[in-house]
Amino acid sequence: MTDVGKTKPSSAKETMDVLMEMSRILNTGLDLETLATVVRLCESGVNPEAIALVFNELRKESSAIKNDSNQSGS
After folding, report:
1. d(Cα 14, Cα 44) in Å, to the nearest integer?
2. From the CB of residue 38, how many other CB atoms can be counted at a distance below 10 Å?
3. What does the domain layout of the chain look like in residue ranges?
4. Coil, strand or helix at 63
């Protein structure tokens, strides 16, 4: 019974390590905290495709804001 309690945190860390490595290989640009949030959202039943669409839209908006800021400052 005590062995199960000891392996769970280690197993969760190993899982996050593997997911982080996959994220790096796929060049998602997600940091560990953001990836953990995405995993929690998926575990809560949020559609992964919807999460991806939101991230893509946020990146586009962020890029547009940065471009506007750079053009205004020039």
Report:
1. 20
2. 19
3. 2-73
4. helix
